[in-house]
User: What shape does this take?
Amino acid sequence: MKKIINKELKYNRIEVSPSSKKKKKTIIFYHGWGTTVESNMDVAEVLANEGYQVIFPEIIYHDTRNCLENHFDEEIIQSYFWKTIITMIKEWDKFIQVIGIPEHEIILVGSSMGGFIANGIFATRQSLGGLVNINGSGSFVLSEQIFRKQVERPELSTVEYNLLKRYDPVQFENCSAPVLLMHGDSDTTVSIDGQKDYYLYLTEIKKREDVDLFIYENTNHVITLSMVKDLIKWLNI
Assistant: This one.
């Protein structure tokens, strides 16, 4: 893995394995809340062996970018979770210039919070190569409403609602590239209902046919071997 620093933007790159027969699209991989670039390195290595260059952007408030002391303190989550997601979505234009790769050669992949980020970027771009959202959500307002119910927080204020709605993928046309949504049916961290709502938005309202929702029985908030195998199969179609 090679770490690349460009002023305030940093990213890590895993190049295609020398044994790979053919170089394919580049995968931009966003990791989950409170984890690190290293967290999904095993998945990245599998992807590299399949011929995909993988780039992990360093996410604000993680790794070396003003990393928070305790990501799982409830007050920290409430203050920084959506701020992190929105910051990374807004950084996309600058990031794509830094890496110098055409959008049509990029597939966005995100895990958990990274799925929210990838989905938020995908919603407003038109030339990306695809989206894979693993255990995340493409329905921001609904997911936040569920988060609040889980910890008995007050409902969204008008200001909070309007801010999330401004970035909510179900408010946009979304990129026309293929979409894969993957989620465990027993996820107690990020409800599968956000994925289902986004799936229905694309397939029923937008009448899309290139959208897949894979649901994994008795699976909590993890990336399983079955998910990795299905991801590879979907990418290689």
User: Anything to note?
Assistant: The CA atoms of residues 14 and 45 lie 7 Å apart. The chain has one domain: 70-235. Residues 70-235 form a domain with the Rossmann fold fold (CATH 3.40.50.1820). The two ends are 27 Å apart (CA to CA).
